[in-house]
Predict the structure.
Amino acid sequence: MQPSELRRFREAIGRHLGQPLTPDVAAAIEAATRAAPTVTLQRDEVFAEHLDGNADAIAFNLQMCDVLHLWDDLIDKDKAVTADTINRGFQAALVDIPCNPFYRAHFDALNPLVSACILSWHTANKWEAEERLEELRLAYVVRSDYINLFLASVAIVRGSEYAARVAPEVRAYWHGEGWKGYLINLAAEKAAKRGQHGML
């Protein structure tokens, strides 16, 4: 990133946060960005690898991710969601996931994690609305708590030792956009919402 681009980025994030972006905070953002991994694998590949090709476990996790992302998109209203996408999402939520053999066999272990990740998502949305830097740092991680659902599935399929060994790699993949990317996407989401309100 060129110095002029970096300066504009700092100013934009500072305006978004509603507070000065001090050199210390800017340095922390830049350091976290440099440390962020380069993500090359596709989601389906990651799921297939760590779930050892278990078709039901893969289908459950893919559909759960799609449903949760759809829910987020419908609440955020920052992107167009087609009727077909909504129909597929509700089909998955109301029929496919409840009937999934992997989910049914391990319901007692997985369902509490589903509830917990929903609570975490609500918490992250609240923190993002408040726009304080400390809460945003927490929201950046907490909003993706559904990763625990995937890691629990990995532990069921491959064992807890394997799940513990790959958990850092999986978490790095889940947060592949990086801290800077998260802030940029959050600012864009809020700008889209402001634009929609302005058109009403």
